[in-house]
């Protein structure tokens, strides 16, 4: 017997949930996963009661942030607007992964994921699906002869992580520009 799926959220509840996730992503990216829940609610422009109705504790909020991050990556890896070549699909995915906000969030969530992912079957499955889709995109570009074959998906994700981490000595705009430049250098180095 399967559980009944949760009813869809009302439009205002959905907006509040999205605002809470966006606010949490921003603050956790900047200050880590221990940022006070009250500050997340304030940053999102909602009451603390609204936060706790949507996410009863920090664990459920961070879990949803991580799951959402993986779902977005999977959706981009699986979508193919206009029949992209393998290389173009890879470039699109690398640029998504290299968005400074996403890179900062992924870095901030890494310790939490290391501690909690394996105990959560759904999150573990999302992670494995994401890694599989990323690796498939890499292999497709390699099979088309567009990408060097001595680099795998794990290597590339590590490169992206290194170049997309936020540089606190730079303004947000300068850090974003530097990340974009470094990603293009990485992409140039990946060409076969």
Question: What do you see in this structure?
Answer:
This protein has 192 residues and is mainly alpha-helical. The chain is built from 9 helices and no strands. The protein is globular and about 55 Å long. The model has no long low-confidence stretch (mean pLDDT 89).
What descriptors fit this protein?
192 residues, mainly alpha
Please mark out the parts with pLDDT under 50 across 5 or more consecutive residues, or reply none.
Answer: none
Counting helices, strands and paired strands, the structural category is: mainly alpha
Please state the CA-atom Rg, rounded to the nearest Å. 18 Å
Tell me the span between the first and last alpha carbons. 51 Å
- Secondary structure: number of strands: 0
Strand content: under 5%
* Tertiary shape: globular
Sum this structure up briefly.
The protein has nine helices and no strands. The protein is mostly helical.
